[in-house]
Amino acid sequence: MLKSELNSKNKETTKPINPPFVFRDPNSPKKIYGSACNLQELAEILPYIPYFSIEYHLYRVESDDTVSSDLGLWMRYIVGLNSLSDEIEKLGASVEGLELKDELVNMINSHFLDL
After folding, report:
1. What's the domain range around 79?
2. What is the reported pLDDT for 46?
């Protein structure tokens, strides 16, 4: 059982969110690895998303030298969880690779246990 299922009764985390978050291949944007319409779905798909797609959506330097965090922005402006967004953005700036993926999975699952 996923930790996210422990709090599946929480309406705020399980209601569909529009637009959903989509994990794409950084080298081929038409290739989609998964999407989530709420935090429970995000927790469920994260273990199956390649780490390089997670890296791309958590922290990347754009051509104009700005830093982008797609997942952090989705969490802040679409889901409305500013503190979780802050944690995600800090994580993306400090950790890479499989460690980033593992820590993000743990962070999202821990969020369900704290609700």
Report:
1. 3-114
2. 96
Arithmetic mean of pLDDT, 96-113? 92
Task: Work out the angle between the directed axes of helices 97-114 and 51-58 (0-180°, nearest 10).
Answer: 70
Return the residue matching tokens 């422990």: 6
Which token pair is 77?
């402006």
pTM over 0.85: no
CB 103 within 8 A of CB 111: no
Angstrom distance (rounded) from CA 23 to CA 57: 7
* SS3 call for 66: coil
Q: In the numeric block, which tokens belong to residue 92? A: 């993306």
User: What's the pLDDT band for 16 if we cut at 50, 70, 90?
Assistant: low
Provide the domain count of the chain.
1
Per the listing, tokens 């889901």 go with 79
